[in-house]
Amino acid sequence: MSSFFTEEHEAFRKTVRAFVEKELAPHALEWDRAGIFPREVFNKCGELGFFGINHDPKHGGSGLDYWYVTAFAEELVRSRNAGVNMALLVQSQMATPIINEIGTDEQKREFLAPALSGEKIAALGVSEPGCGSDVAGLRTTARRLGDDYVINGSKMWITNGTRADFLTLAVRTGEAGYGGISLLTFPTDVKGFSVSKKLDKIGNLSSDTAILYFEDCKVPVRYLLGEENAGFYHVMTNFQGERLVAAIIAVAGMEQMVQEAIRYGKEREAFGRPIIGFQVWRHKFVEHLASIEAARRLTYWAVELFDKKEAAVKEISMAKLFAGDLAQKVAYDCQQFHGGMGYIEETDIARAWRDIRLITIGGGTSEVMKEIISKMLF
Protein backbone atom coordinates (compact mmCIF):
# COMPACT_ATOMS: atom_id res chain seq x y z
CA MET A 1 0.00 0.00 0.00
CA SER A 2 2.91 2.35 0.71
CA SER A 3 3.71 2.63 -2.99
CA PHE A 4 0.30 4.22 -3.54
CA PHE A 5 -0.41 6.12 -0.32
CA THR A 6 1.84 8.54 1.59
CA GLU A 7 1.85 9.11 5.35
CA GLU A 8 -0.48 12.06 4.73
CA HIS A 9 -2.91 9.81 2.87
CA GLU A 10 -2.87 7.30 5.72
CA ALA A 11 -3.42 10.01 8.34
CA PHE A 12 -6.47 11.14 6.38
CA ARG A 13 -7.61 7.53 6.11
CA LYS A 14 -7.51 7.19 9.90
CA THR A 15 -9.67 10.29 10.27
CA VAL A 16 -12.27 8.88 7.86
CA ARG A 17 -12.17 5.47 9.54
CA ALA A 18 -12.73 6.94 12.99
CA PHE A 19 -15.72 8.94 11.75
CA VAL A 20 -17.25 6.03 9.84
CA GLU A 21 -16.89 3.53 12.67
CA LYS A 22 -18.23 5.94 15.30
CA GLU A 23 -20.90 7.92 13.43
CA LEU A 24 -22.13 5.63 10.64
CA ALA A 25 -21.59 1.92 11.28
CA PRO A 26 -23.60 1.73 14.54
CA HIS A 27 -26.71 2.95 12.67
CA ALA A 28 -26.42 0.77 9.55
CA LEU A 29 -29.42 -1.47 10.16
CA GLU A 30 -31.52 1.30 11.73
CA TRP A 31 -31.12 3.59 8.71
CA ASP A 32 -31.79 0.80 6.24
CA ARG A 33 -35.06 0.05 7.97
CA ALA A 34 -35.98 3.74 8.01
CA GLY A 35 -35.23 4.03 4.28
CA ILE A 36 -33.29 7.26 4.89
CA PHE A 37 -30.50 8.61 7.06
CA PRO A 38 -30.30 11.94 8.91
CA ARG A 39 -29.43 15.09 7.01
CA GLU A 40 -26.94 15.85 9.78
CA VAL A 41 -24.61 13.26 8.26
CA PHE A 42 -24.13 15.59 5.30
CA ASN A 43 -23.37 18.46 7.69
CA LYS A 44 -20.75 16.43 9.57
CA CYS A 45 -19.06 15.19 6.40
CA GLY A 46 -18.93 18.74 5.11
CA GLU A 47 -17.39 20.01 8.33
CA LEU A 48 -14.68 17.33 8.10
CA GLY A 49 -13.90 18.25 4.49
CA PHE A 50 -14.96 14.90 3.02
CA PHE A 51 -16.99 16.43 0.18
CA GLY A 52 -14.30 18.76 -1.12
CA ILE A 53 -11.30 16.46 -1.12
CA ASN A 54 -10.24 17.11 -4.73
CA HIS A 55 -12.28 20.26 -5.35
CA ASP A 56 -11.40 23.94 -5.78
CA PRO A 57 -9.86 25.37 -2.55
CA LYS A 58 -11.21 28.78 -3.52
CA HIS A 59 -14.74 27.52 -2.92
CA GLY A 60 -14.30 25.26 0.08
CA GLY A 61 -12.41 22.30 -1.36
CA SER A 62 -9.02 20.93 -0.34
CA GLY A 63 -7.48 20.55 -3.81
CA LEU A 64 -5.94 17.17 -2.93
CA ASP A 65 -5.11 14.30 -5.29
CA TYR A 66 -7.41 11.41 -6.17
CA TRP A 67 -5.63 8.99 -3.84
CA TYR A 68 -7.31 10.85 -0.99
CA VAL A 69 -10.67 10.18 -2.69
CA THR A 70 -9.65 6.54 -3.00
CA ALA A 71 -8.89 6.30 0.73
CA PHE A 72 -12.19 8.02 1.53
CA ALA A 73 -14.21 5.60 -0.60
CA GLU A 74 -12.39 2.56 0.77
CA GLU A 75 -13.03 3.56 4.37
CA LEU A 76 -16.71 4.31 3.73
CA VAL A 77 -17.22 0.58 3.23
CA ARG A 78 -16.77 0.18 6.98
CA SER A 79 -20.15 1.86 7.44
CA ARG A 80 -21.82 -1.45 6.53
CA ASN A 81 -24.38 0.66 4.71
CA ALA A 82 -24.11 0.98 0.94
CA GLY A 83 -26.99 3.45 0.78
CA VAL A 84 -25.20 6.00 2.93
CA ASN A 85 -22.00 5.47 0.95
CA MET A 86 -23.84 6.03 -2.32
CA ALA A 87 -25.49 9.24 -1.15
CA LEU A 88 -22.25 10.74 0.17
CA LEU A 89 -20.28 9.81 -2.95
CA VAL A 90 -22.97 11.31 -5.19
CA GLN A 91 -22.51 14.54 -3.24
CA SER A 92 -18.72 14.55 -3.48
CA GLN A 93 -17.83 12.72 -6.71
CA MET A 94 -20.85 12.73 -9.03
CA ALA A 95 -23.04 15.84 -8.66
CA THR A 96 -20.35 18.42 -7.89
CA PRO A 97 -17.29 17.64 -10.10
CA ILE A 98 -18.89 19.19 -13.20
CA ILE A 99 -19.54 22.43 -11.32
CA ASN A 100 -15.99 22.33 -9.99
CA GLU A 101 -14.58 21.86 -13.49
CA ILE A 102 -16.63 24.22 -15.67
CA GLY A 103 -18.81 26.29 -13.33
CA THR A 104 -18.50 30.07 -13.11
CA ASP A 105 -17.36 31.67 -9.87
CA GLU A 106 -20.97 32.71 -9.29
CA GLN A 107 -22.21 29.12 -9.77
CA LYS A 108 -19.50 27.81 -7.48
CA ARG A 109 -20.41 30.26 -4.75
CA GLU A 110 -24.13 29.52 -5.02
CA PHE A 111 -24.01 25.73 -5.47
CA LEU A 112 -20.56 24.17 -5.07
CA ALA A 113 -19.46 25.86 -1.83
CA PRO A 114 -22.60 25.00 0.18
CA ALA A 115 -22.52 21.43 -1.17
CA LEU A 116 -18.91 20.96 -0.07
CA SER A 117 -19.71 22.36 3.38
CA GLY A 118 -22.69 20.00 3.70
CA GLU A 119 -25.14 22.88 3.93
CA LYS A 120 -26.89 21.86 0.71
CA ILE A 121 -27.57 18.37 -0.64
CA ALA A 122 -26.76 17.77 -4.31
CA ALA A 123 -28.02 15.25 -6.86
CA LEU A 124 -27.06 14.39 -10.42
CA GLY A 125 -29.97 14.49 -12.85
CA VAL A 126 -29.04 12.55 -16.00
CA SER A 127 -30.97 9.24 -16.22
CA GLU A 128 -34.58 9.22 -17.40
CA PRO A 129 -37.41 6.66 -17.50
CA GLY A 130 -36.55 5.77 -21.10
CA CYS A 131 -32.82 6.37 -21.05
CA GLY A 132 -30.21 5.23 -18.57
CA SER A 133 -26.82 4.51 -20.08
CA ASP A 134 -27.90 5.99 -23.43
CA VAL A 135 -27.39 9.62 -22.44
CA ALA A 136 -27.70 10.79 -26.05
CA GLY A 137 -31.34 9.71 -25.95
CA LEU A 138 -32.45 11.94 -23.07
CA ARG A 139 -35.66 13.90 -23.66
CA THR A 140 -35.99 16.42 -20.84
CA THR A 141 -35.98 19.76 -22.65
CA ALA A 142 -34.80 23.24 -21.75
CA ARG A 143 -36.20 25.87 -24.12
CA ARG A 144 -34.64 29.31 -24.17
CA LEU A 145 -37.14 32.06 -23.38
CA GLY A 146 -35.53 35.46 -22.97
CA ASP A 147 -33.15 35.29 -20.02
CA ASP A 148 -34.54 31.96 -18.80
CA TYR A 149 -34.64 28.28 -19.69
CA VAL A 150 -38.05 26.60 -19.43
CA ILE A 151 -37.62 22.94 -18.47
CA ASN A 152 -40.06 20.08 -19.08
CA GLY A 153 -39.60 16.36 -18.60
CA SER A 154 -38.62 13.85 -15.95
CA LYS A 155 -35.62 12.11 -14.41
CA MET A 156 -35.43 8.66 -12.83
CA TRP A 157 -33.09 6.73 -10.50
CA ILE A 158 -31.88 9.99 -8.94
CA THR A 159 -29.94 9.40 -5.71
CA ASN A 160 -30.60 12.10 -3.08
CA GLY A 161 -33.57 13.01 -5.26
CA THR A 162 -36.22 13.39 -2.56
CA ARG A 163 -34.27 15.96 -0.54
CA ALA A 164 -31.74 17.53 -2.89
CA ASP A 165 -31.43 21.30 -2.67
CA PHE A 166 -30.15 21.44 -6.22
CA LEU A 167 -29.43 19.23 -9.21
CA THR A 168 -26.64 19.14 -11.72
CA LEU A 169 -29.11 18.63 -14.54
CA ALA A 170 -28.64 17.30 -18.09
CA VAL A 171 -31.22 18.68 -20.54
CA ARG A 172 -31.85 18.81 -24.25
CA THR A 173 -31.37 22.30 -25.67
CA GLY A 174 -30.73 21.33 -29.29
CA GLU A 175 -31.13 18.65 -31.90
CA ALA A 176 -31.55 14.94 -31.21
CA GLY A 177 -28.41 13.02 -30.29
CA TYR A 178 -25.36 13.88 -28.27
CA GLY A 179 -24.87 17.29 -29.91
CA GLY A 180 -27.92 18.90 -28.34
CA ILE A 181 -27.30 18.28 -24.65
CA SER A 182 -26.56 20.99 -22.08
CA LEU A 183 -25.99 21.11 -18.34
CA LEU A 184 -27.64 23.36 -15.80
CA THR A 185 -27.49 23.98 -12.08
CA PHE A 186 -31.09 23.61 -10.95
CA PRO A 187 -32.42 24.70 -7.51
CA THR A 188 -35.23 22.39 -6.45
CA ASP A 189 -37.34 25.18 -4.96
CA VAL A 190 -38.27 26.28 -8.50
CA LYS A 191 -42.00 26.38 -9.25
CA GLY A 192 -43.12 23.39 -11.31
CA PHE A 193 -40.56 20.96 -9.87
CA SER A 194 -41.81 17.95 -7.92
CA VAL A 195 -40.69 14.60 -6.61
CA SER A 196 -43.02 12.28 -8.48
CA LYS A 197 -42.14 9.15 -6.52
CA LYS A 198 -39.61 7.71 -4.11
CA LEU A 199 -38.52 4.35 -5.52
CA ASP A 200 -38.58 1.20 -3.39
CA LYS A 201 -35.29 -0.51 -4.19
CA ILE A 202 -34.16 -4.01 -3.23
CA GLY A 203 -30.83 -2.67 -1.95
CA ASN A 204 -29.06 0.52 -0.89
CA LEU A 205 -32.17 1.12 1.17
CA SER A 206 -31.06 4.14 3.17
CA SER A 207 -30.30 6.26 0.10
CA ASP A 208 -33.38 7.99 -1.27
CA THR A 209 -33.83 7.38 -4.99
CA ALA A 210 -36.54 9.25 -6.86
CA ILE A 211 -38.42 10.02 -10.03
CA LEU A 212 -38.41 13.79 -10.58
CA TYR A 213 -40.84 15.83 -12.64
CA PHE A 214 -40.37 19.21 -14.35
CA GLU A 215 -43.33 21.22 -15.60
CA ASP A 216 -42.50 24.62 -17.12
CA CYS A 217 -39.70 25.16 -14.60
CA LYS A 218 -37.90 28.46 -15.19
CA VAL A 219 -34.23 28.96 -14.31
CA PRO A 220 -32.02 31.85 -15.40
CA VAL A 221 -29.63 31.40 -18.31
CA ARG A 222 -26.75 32.17 -15.94
CA TYR A 223 -27.25 28.67 -14.50
CA LEU A 224 -25.96 27.13 -17.76
CA LEU A 225 -22.81 25.09 -17.06
CA GLY A 226 -20.26 25.56 -19.82
CA GLU A 227 -21.47 26.08 -23.37
CA GLU A 228 -24.94 25.33 -24.67
CA ASN A 229 -25.22 22.01 -26.55
CA ALA A 230 -21.75 20.96 -25.32
CA GLY A 231 -22.81 19.03 -22.22
CA PHE A 232 -22.48 15.47 -23.52
CA TYR A 233 -18.70 15.46 -23.25
CA HIS A 234 -18.83 16.63 -19.63
CA VAL A 235 -21.43 13.99 -18.73
CA MET A 236 -19.22 11.29 -20.24
CA THR A 237 -16.16 12.63 -18.42
CA ASN A 238 -18.15 12.70 -15.18
CA PHE A 239 -19.12 9.07 -15.72
CA GLN A 240 -15.44 8.11 -15.44
CA GLY A 241 -15.26 9.34 -11.86
CA GLU A 242 -18.52 7.58 -11.00
CA ARG A 243 -17.34 4.29 -12.49
CA LEU A 244 -13.95 4.51 -10.84
CA VAL A 245 -15.54 5.06 -7.43
CA ALA A 246 -17.73 1.99 -8.07
CA ALA A 247 -14.63 -0.13 -8.73
CA ILE A 248 -12.91 1.19 -5.59
CA ILE A 249 -15.99 0.44 -3.48
CA ALA A 250 -16.30 -3.04 -5.00
CA VAL A 251 -12.69 -3.96 -4.19
CA ALA A 252 -12.84 -2.65 -0.62
CA GLY A 253 -16.22 -4.30 -0.10
CA MET A 254 -15.01 -7.68 -1.33
CA GLU A 255 -11.98 -7.61 0.92
CA GLN A 256 -14.14 -6.75 3.93
CA MET A 257 -16.61 -9.54 3.14
CA VAL A 258 -13.87 -12.19 2.85
CA GLN A 259 -12.03 -11.11 5.99
CA GLU A 260 -15.23 -11.09 8.03
CA ALA A 261 -16.20 -14.49 6.62
CA ILE A 262 -12.84 -15.91 7.70
CA ARG A 263 -13.30 -14.52 11.20
CA TYR A 264 -16.77 -16.05 11.34
CA GLY A 265 -15.40 -19.36 10.07
CA LYS A 266 -12.88 -19.57 12.91
CA GLU A 267 -15.65 -19.27 15.48
CA ARG A 268 -18.43 -21.33 13.89
CA GLU A 269 -17.99 -25.08 14.25
CA ALA A 270 -19.53 -27.96 12.32
CA PHE A 271 -18.79 -31.67 12.71
CA GLY A 272 -16.40 -30.93 15.54
CA ARG A 273 -14.17 -28.32 13.93
CA PRO A 274 -14.22 -24.68 12.74
CA ILE A 275 -15.83 -24.47 9.31
CA ILE A 276 -12.85 -22.53 7.96
CA GLY A 277 -10.93 -25.81 8.43
CA PHE A 278 -12.72 -27.42 5.49
CA GLN A 279 -10.48 -27.40 2.44
CA VAL A 280 -13.26 -26.49 0.02
CA TRP A 281 -13.70 -23.14 1.78
CA ARG A 282 -10.02 -22.44 2.42
CA HIS A 283 -9.24 -22.89 -1.25
CA LYS A 284 -12.24 -20.84 -2.34
CA PHE A 285 -11.19 -17.89 -0.18
CA VAL A 286 -7.61 -18.14 -1.44
CA GLU A 287 -8.91 -17.90 -5.01
CA HIS A 288 -11.06 -14.91 -4.09
CA LEU A 289 -8.25 -13.08 -2.31
CA ALA A 290 -5.98 -13.56 -5.33
CA SER A 291 -8.68 -12.22 -7.65
CA ILE A 292 -9.41 -9.30 -5.31
CA GLU A 293 -5.75 -8.35 -5.35
CA ALA A 294 -5.80 -8.42 -9.16
CA ALA A 295 -8.91 -6.22 -9.13
CA ARG A 296 -7.21 -3.81 -6.72
CA ARG A 297 -4.13 -3.48 -8.92
CA LEU A 298 -6.23 -2.88 -12.03
CA THR A 299 -8.31 -0.30 -10.15
CA TYR A 300 -5.25 1.46 -8.75
CA TRP A 301 -3.76 1.64 -12.24
CA ALA A 302 -6.95 3.38 -13.37
CA VAL A 303 -6.75 5.70 -10.33
CA GLU A 304 -3.16 6.61 -11.21
CA LEU A 305 -4.13 7.54 -14.78
CA PHE A 306 -7.24 9.41 -13.65
CA ASP A 307 -5.28 11.33 -11.03
CA LYS A 308 -2.80 12.44 -13.70
CA LYS A 309 -5.76 13.46 -15.91
CA GLU A 310 -4.65 11.03 -18.59
CA ALA A 311 -7.09 9.17 -20.85
CA ALA A 312 -8.32 6.23 -18.80
CA VAL A 313 -11.72 5.29 -20.24
CA LYS A 314 -10.60 1.78 -21.15
CA GLU A 315 -8.86 1.15 -17.84
CA ILE A 316 -11.73 2.53 -15.74
CA SER A 317 -14.27 0.51 -17.72
CA MET A 318 -12.16 -2.62 -17.26
CA ALA A 319 -11.80 -1.98 -13.53
CA LYS A 320 -15.54 -1.51 -13.03
CA LEU A 321 -16.34 -4.56 -15.19
CA PHE A 322 -13.85 -6.87 -13.50
CA ALA A 323 -14.39 -5.70 -9.92
CA GLY A 324 -18.16 -5.49 -10.30
CA ASP A 325 -18.59 -8.98 -11.73
CA LEU A 326 -16.12 -10.48 -9.26
CA ALA A 327 -17.98 -8.85 -6.37
CA GLN A 328 -21.11 -10.81 -7.25
CA LYS A 329 -19.23 -14.12 -6.89
CA VAL A 330 -17.43 -13.10 -3.72
CA ALA A 331 -20.62 -11.87 -2.06
CA TYR A 332 -22.46 -15.06 -3.00
CA ASP A 333 -19.78 -17.33 -1.53
CA CYS A 334 -19.37 -15.26 1.64
CA GLN A 335 -23.12 -15.35 2.19
CA GLN A 336 -23.24 -19.09 1.47
CA PHE A 337 -20.42 -19.64 3.95
CA HIS A 338 -22.55 -18.04 6.68
CA GLY A 339 -25.37 -20.54 6.08
CA GLY A 340 -28.66 -19.52 7.66
CA MET A 341 -27.05 -16.52 9.33
CA GLY A 342 -26.28 -15.14 5.89
CA TYR A 343 -29.99 -14.97 5.13
CA ILE A 344 -30.87 -12.72 8.07
CA GLU A 345 -31.06 -8.99 7.47
CA GLU A 346 -29.36 -8.20 10.76
CA THR A 347 -26.09 -9.71 9.54
CA ASP A 348 -23.70 -7.52 7.58
CA ILE A 349 -23.09 -10.14 4.90
CA ALA A 350 -26.79 -10.42 4.04
CA ARG A 351 -27.04 -6.70 3.39
CA ALA A 352 -23.69 -6.62 1.58
CA TRP A 353 -24.81 -9.45 -0.74
CA ARG A 354 -28.01 -7.56 -1.47
CA ASP A 355 -26.38 -4.15 -1.98
CA ILE A 356 -23.36 -5.18 -4.08
CA ARG A 357 -25.72 -6.09 -6.91
CA LEU A 358 -25.91 -2.44 -7.93
CA ILE A 359 -22.22 -2.28 -8.88
CA THR A 360 -22.87 -4.10 -12.18
CA ILE A 361 -25.87 -1.87 -12.97
CA GLY A 362 -25.34 1.70 -11.76
CA GLY A 363 -23.10 4.09 -13.68
CA GLY A 364 -23.27 1.86 -16.75
CA THR A 365 -23.99 -1.87 -16.73
CA SER A 366 -21.33 -4.54 -17.20
CA GLU A 367 -22.65 -5.02 -20.73
CA VAL A 368 -22.14 -1.32 -21.47
CA MET A 369 -18.58 -1.55 -20.08
CA LYS A 370 -17.87 -4.42 -22.48
CA GLU A 371 -19.23 -2.42 -25.40
CA ILE A 372 -17.08 0.60 -24.50
CA ILE A 373 -13.95 -1.54 -24.20
CA SER A 374 -14.65 -3.46 -27.41
CA LYS A 375 -15.12 -0.24 -29.39
CA MET A 376 -11.78 1.07 -28.12
CA LEU A 377 -9.98 -2.20 -28.91
CA PHE A 378 -11.56 -3.14 -32.20
Description of the structure:
- The protein has 378 residues and is an alpha+beta fold.
- Helices cover 49% and strands 16% of the residues.
- The longest helix is centred in the middle third of the chain and has 37 residues, at 231-267.
* CATH fold name of the largest domain: Butyryl-CoA Dehydrogenase, subunit A, domain 3
- The helical percent reads 40-55%
Structural class: alpha+beta
Average pLDDT figure = 96
Low-pLDDT residue spans? none
Rg result: 21 Å
Task: Give the overall silhouette.
Answer: globular
Summarize this structure briefly.
The chain has 378 residues and is an alpha+beta fold. It is built from twelve helices and ten strands.
Q: Which helices and strands occur, and which strands form pairs?
A:
Elements: H1 7-24, H2 28-34, H3 40-47, H4 66-76, H5 82-93, H6 97-102, H7 105-116, E1 122-125, E2 141-145, E3 148-159, E4 166-172, E5 181-187, E6 193-198, E7 209-220, E8 224-225, H8 231-267, E9 269-270, E10 273-274, H9 279-307, H10 313-337, H11 348-355, H12 366-377
Parallel strand pairs: 1-4
Antiparallel strand pairs: 2-3, 3-7, 4-5, 5-8, 6-7, 9-10
